[in-house]
Design a protein that fits this description.
Layout: H1 13-27, H2 34-45, E1 53-56, E2 62-67, H3 73-76, H4 79-83, E3 87-88, E4 98-103, E5 108-113, E6 116-121, H5 125-139, E7 143-148, H6 150-158, E8 166-170, H7 180-183
Antiparallel strand pairs: 1-2, 2-6, 3-4, 4-5, 5-6, 7-8
Length: 184
């Protein structure tokens, strides 16, 4: 990834103010043409921004909210992201604009929805496992794929009386939990 969105570093109030001041400096610079201003503002917008939204969730974990103008594939196809231990958490909502990943090594989860990125940082294995349990309860059973014949495909796509044969391959979510005795 061009910038590691999974970092939890926060800007100080002074750094956030400096970032904002630079934006307005560019915006109102009369020596720049419209094209120059547009290019410089785009570059400024792509700089690492201050994290504004940090809050605890129901499981007692820290949620860091950021925004990225991109799609979920910045995570899916990033070799460094996978090498760091991130695993896809399959849901029935997965699409180019939505995805969930978990990292049992770093004790973190990450959700992407229409540009909003929610990184959940867990303090320990118990909090991480509580987060995974909450994800499982919220998203239900995830499936990796459905193999079906044409009759079943019509029923799945168009509804109606179930017919044909369909096999659902479900994700083994037990791989996401961290054994708590290993970290005790």
């Amino acid at each position: 990834m061009e910038r590691d969105i999974t970092r939890t570093d926060l800007w100080t109030k002074e750094q956030a103010q400096a970032w904002s001041n630079r934006y307005w400096q560019i915006r109102w610079d009369k020596t720049l043409s419209e094209d120059e201003r547009r290019v410089i503002l785009i570059a400024h917008e792509n700089e690492f921004r201050p994290v504004r939204d940090v809050y605890p969730n129901d499981q007692g974990n820290t949620v860091v909210h950021r925004h990225r103008s991109a799609d979920r594939y910045i995570f899916d196809f990033d070799a460094d992201f996978r090498a760091a231990g991130w695993l896809q958490f399959d849901t029935d909502q997965d699409a180019w604009y939505f995805g969930v990943w978990v990292n049992p090594r770093l004790l973190r989860t990450l959700s992407y929805c229409e540009g909003d990125v929610y990184l959940v940082v867990c303090a320990d294995a118990q909090h991480y496992n509580a987060e995974i349990k909450a994800l499982c309860e919220f998203h239900g059973e995830g499936f990796e794929m459905i193999a079906c014949d044409m009759d079943a495909a019509q029923c799945l796509l168009l509804g109606g009386e179930p017919k044909g044969k369909a096999t659902f391959y479900r994700q083994d979510r037990s791989q996401f939990y961290v054994p708590t005795e290993e970290l005790a």
